[in-house]
Amino acid sequence: SLRKADFVEAARGLGMGWGGIVFGQIMPLCLAAVAIRATLDMAGIILTAAGLGFLGLGAQPPLAEWGAMIAQGRDQAFDAWWVAAVPGLAILIVSLGFNLLGDGLRA
Fold first, then answer.
1. What pLDDT score does 97 carry?
2. CB–CB of 85/78 below 8 Å?
3. pTM of structure
4. Segment (H or E) for 66
């Protein structure tokens, strides 16, 4: 859709090549949208990775992974509830932080 935009036609009229138009005119317009989309998608990526780790399909021990920590703390839920609650709270805080960052960048 940007190929027929007025500023692209003006840049072409000034003698800019396709590389100058793409990297000098179009890319700066797209970078903000890409940054916003990446921060908003990061929460879903974190939740997916934690879910896979909880099921045992993520990073394997001895690597630390929030979903695996929650799965290990599930057996101790009544005696030591914080073993599962702290990684869950970390997932919540980081996901919320990325969503708020994306909303802030969008405004």
1. 96
2. no
3. 0.75
4. helix 66-73
